[in-house]
Design brief:
About 35% of the residues lie in helices and about 25% in strands. The chain is built from 11 helices and 16 strands. The strands form 4 sheets. It has an 8-stranded mixed sheet. Strand 1 and strand 2 form a beta hairpin. It is elongated. The site of one zinc ion has 4 residues, from loops.
């Protein structure tokens, strides 16, 4: 029997569930309906279910035999605050909310694996199925950890999976090392002395200072960070003055942006160097600056041993199409908070070609139902191999 065909019986149920979740998207920490559905199906499958970690998070435990190893498998449940454009039978029924990152598929596949493993019980050890809220920038993973996730449900390894357009649905990338970047925000306010636009010498112009700062900003990546280390610094917001007041130099300029890195050292460098540039610019122009670097999520860096274990499972399911080379993403994923507590591996499951060019977070994006069996097969195989009657 092929690794995928084992799950054929459950596919109509899982596909219908995926469509139902897609039609009812919920934003981070608001996944009341989704988590209730997840918890109900897990309970019906006979798992021990714990609710309320990270507000709307769900953890279900399946313990079989007397194997001592414990692993955590994670799916995220949240949608995005954006409209869904195409008409599809299961189009979002909630205006301005949409599953544009495929988390409806992640939730479905992990639930499918839990159902299968609870029935087949072909392993010895403990699996914690972690259904996480609020992955999309609202801090769900951190909240679950703060609520005692790993104290209550200790794990010897933790695994995450994300769909990836451009890879075939029978294809998976399992790569050691950096997978996703740190995702941090920075803000600064240049405070000068506002004055008449015709009399700049009577004030201190923060706009000219901001221009100098922005022009120099890319020198951090270009001149300070090791050229062999990827890094991104982007200014994404500039607020100053009033387009109706073109003869007024304002007091303040507010600038904000994002910083991305794949190592703790480069992350530290970006925090320090953006600040240095801000303070140096302020000194140069005789104005003040207030600078904040807001650490949001660390990079996702796959542990060597966990990656080896995930790759073994991927090769069993996908054969030659289990890839060990795939470029990291400059996006972030707060799975890194879980991987900080136990050796972790984050894998990419193919979602097929990008239809009409729609990638993650596009108003046309959709999880590919043809990937459901592959994802269930991967999770199930990983558990059966990792917890093979130690
Ligand atoms: Zn996303
Ligand atoms: Zn996502």
């Amino acid at each position: 029997m092929s690794p995928l065909s084992r799950f054929g019986n459950d596919l109509p149920f899982l596909t219908a569930l995926r469509h139902d979740l897609h039609a009812h998207p919920e934003l981070g920490f608001e996944e009341e309906r989704t988590s209730a559905i997840v918890a109900r199906h897990l309970e019906e499958a006979g798992l021990t279910v714990h609710r309320g970690l990270g507000k709307t998070g769900v953890v279900a435990t399946l313990q079989v035999g007397n194997g001592q190893r414990r692993i955590g498998l994670r799916a995220d449940m949240d949608a995005l605050a954006m409209p869904e454009k195409p008409d599809r039978p299961y189009k979002s029924t909630v205006p301005g909310k949409m599953h544009a990152c495929g988390h409806d598929g992640h939730t479905t596949m992990l639930l499918g694996a839990a159902r299968h493993l609870a029935a087949s019980r072909n392993f010895s050890g403990t699996v914690h199925f972690i259904f996480q809220p609020a992955e999309e920038g609202r801090g769900g993973a951190r909240k679950m950890v703060e609520d005692g996730l790993f104290d209550r449900f200790p794990c010897d390894a933790v695994y995450g999976l994300h769909n990836m357009p451009g890879l075939d649905v029978d294809e998976m990338a399992v790569v050691e090392g950096p997978q996703l970047a740190s995702s941090d925000s920075w803000r600064l306010t240049f405070k000068g002395i506002g004055t008449h636009g015709a009399k700049p010498h009577l004030g201190r112009d923060p706009i000219t200072a901001a221009g100098s700062f922005l022009a120099a900003l890319q020198s951090i990546v270009g001149r300070v960070v090791d050229p062999l280390q990827p890094a991104v610094v982007s200014a994404c917001s500039v607020q100053a003055g009033d387009p109706q007041a073109l003869n007024v130099i304002p007091d303040l300029v507010e600038i904000g942006g994002t910083a991305r890195a794949y190592s703790p050292h480069v992350r530290d460098q970006l925090e320090e160097e953006i600040g240095r540039l801000a303070h140096g610019t302020a000194a140069m122009f005789g104005i003040e600056v207030h600078y904040d670097f807001i650490r949001r999520i660390p990079p996702v860096i796959n542990d060597a041993d966990a990656t080896r274990r995930a790759l073994t499972a991927a090769r069993t399911v996908f054969g030659e199409k289990a890839r060990t080379a795939f470029p990291p993403s400059t996006a972030g994923d707060d799975f890194s908070f879980f991987a900080a507590e136990a050796p972790g591996c984050y894998v990419w499951l193919g979602n097929g070609p990008a239809i009409d060019g729609a990638l993650h977070h596009n108003t046309s994006y959709d999880f590919n139902d043809d990937a459901i069996a592959a994802g269930v097969a991967f999770w199930t195989t990983l558990v059966e191999q990792e917890l093979a009657g130690e």
